[in-house]
Amino acid sequence: MQKVTIIHQSRLSNAPSIAEALADVVTQHGAKAIVYSTWNELLGDDVTDKTDLAITVGGDGTLLRMARIMAVQNVPVIGVNMGRIGFTTELSAEEAVEKLPLFLEGQGWIEERTMLSATMGDYSGNALNEVVISRNGPARIVHCVIRINDQIITSYRGDGALIASATGSTGYSLSNGGPVLEPESTAIIVKPINPHVSLNTPLIVDDDATINVHVLTDHGATLTLDGNEDENLMTDSDIYIKRSNLKARFLRLRSKDYFYTVAANLLSRAVPVPTNTNNP
Q: Which residue has the higher pLDDT, 259 or 133?
C-alpha cells in the first residue's frame, strides 16, 4: 500500500485530530498519507491520482460521498464513525488508531455494495443510497407515473418518488416505510412518497430492472442523489434509474450480524425527549 487518502468532517470537533493521528499511523507503515479537511480541497486536487485506500472520519454521509468518488477508481473505503448512527462505517472513533494497522498489514475483507445510476437527457449521475424525485415547496404536489421495464405500475399525486439500493434501505427509505435489505442484496426498492389515494406499498424489483419516473408538475420538482446532488425537473421530465456499473467497496475487519446491528443502532440512537418540553 503506497498512498492513503483521508478526509474528515471539519465541523466535528475531534475529527481533525483523529484524521492526523490516522495519517501518522499510515506514515509509520511506510505509506503516503494525504489529509483533506473539506470536499472542496479533495475535489480541487487531482482525484484521478491513484490512491490505494480511502478513510473517512465523520458520519454515514461523509463515507457515502467518498465511496461514490472512489467507486470510479475501484478503491476501498474505511469509515470511522463520528456521527449519530453509522450504519456503513466500520470503526468507532475510539478504536480507529488501534485497528488501522491491521488493514495496512493486509487484514480485512472487501464488501461490495450495489449503486444506482440515474439519467435524464444529457444528465447522468450515480447514487449509493437513493435517487429521490421530490416536490418543490410545502404546498406543492408532483404527479409521478412509475414504469418498471416499460410497464406502468402506478400513477399518483404526492410528494414524489424514492428509489433506493440495499445500502439506502436504512436511510430515507426506512423512514418512509420501506423495508431493510441485506447489504449484499442487489435488489432495488421503489417507493412512492406520501401518495394521495394510490399505492403506498414499497416494491422490491430485480437488479436488472429499469425504473422510469415520468414527472408532471406545474411548479417544478427536484431530482436528488444521495441527498446532495440536485437537478431541477420540469413537467414531462423522464428519469431512468437502474443498477449502476459501479460498485462501492468497503473494507471490513470483522463480520457482523447485520440485522442485529441495524436494530441496535436504531434503539440506541432514539431521539430523547427534550427536558424542557412542557406537557400539554
A: 133
- Give 90-113 pLDDT, tens digit per residue: 898 899 999 999 999 999 999 999
How far is residue 245 CA from its own chain's centroid?
A: 16
Which amino acid is located at 124 in the chain? Answer: S
User: Which ranges constitute the DSSP H helices of 118-171?
Assistant: none
> Going by C-beta distance under 8 Å and a sequence separation of 6 or more, which residues neighbour residue 181?
166, 169, 187, 189, 204
User: Where does the chain hold its CATH 3.40.50.10330 domain(s)?
Assistant: 3-108+253-268
How is domain 115-245 classified at the architecture level of CATH? Sandwich (2.60)
User: In this model, does residue 179 exceed pLDDT 60?
Assistant: yes
Task: Tell me how far CA of residue 97 lies from CA of 52, 102, 103, 264, in angstroms.
Answer: 18, 10, 11, 24
Taking the mean position of all CA atoms in its chain, how far away is CA 218?
30
State yes or no: is 60 an active-site residue: yes
* Dihedral angle, C-alpha 110, 113, 118, 122, nearest 10 °: 10
Model confidence, pTM: 0.85
Q: Which three cell numbers stand for residue 98?
A: 488501534
As a whole number of angstroms, the distance between CA 88 and CA 90 comes to 6
Q: Reply yes or no on domain 3-108+253-268 having CATH 3.40.50.10330.
A: yes
Q: What are the tens digits of pLDDT across the range 39-90? A: 666 665 665 568 999 999 998 888 888 999 899 999 999 999 986 666 788 8
Cell triple for residue 223?
Answer: 431530482
Q: Rounded to whole angstroms, how far apart are CA atoms 58 and 248?
A: 18
Given 60, 218, 230, 236, which residue is catalytic?
Answer: 60
